[in-house]
């Protein structure tokens, strides 16, 4: 060990505990404490319906692109 880990005292050198540094602690703000997200009035959608919604939006976008390029609207 080096002298950097010991702090001087009147009786000599006193061991200083080594801090374990966690990089995740630097990413978190000490003041940030998110509120609870409990809202009993609104029920979230079922996961299957949410997946179907996004698949439907993707299919609709694909059809619009096919029609747009098919009728030379964008090309």
Helix content: 25-40%
Relative strand content: 5-15%
Question: What gross morphology would you assign?
Answer: elongated
Describe the biggest sheet? 2 strands, antiparallel
Strand runs, count = 2
User: Secondary-structure element sequence?
Assistant: EEHH
Radius of gyration: 30 Å
- Mean pLDDT comes to 79
Oligomer: single chain
User: Structural class of the helix and strand makeup?
Assistant: alpha+beta
What is the tally of helical segments? 2
Strand order of the largest sheet: 1-2
Kindly report how far apart the N and C termini lie.
71 Å
Weakly predicted, low-confidence segments: none
Protein topology:
Blueprint: E1 6-9, E2 12-15, H1 23-27, H2 47-70
Antiparallel strand pairs: 1-2
Describe the model:
This protein has 2 helices and 2 strands; from the N terminus they run ββαα. With 75 residues, it is an alpha+beta fold. It has a domain of 27 residues. It starts with 5 loop residues before the first strand and ends in a 5-residue tail after the last helix.
What tags apply to this protein structure?
2 strands; 75 residues; 2 helices; alpha+beta; two-stranded antiparallel sheet
Short description:
The protein has 75 residues and is α+β, with helices and mostly antiparallel strands. The chain has helices spanning 23-27, 47-70, and strands at residues 6-9, 12-15. The chain has a domain at 49-75.
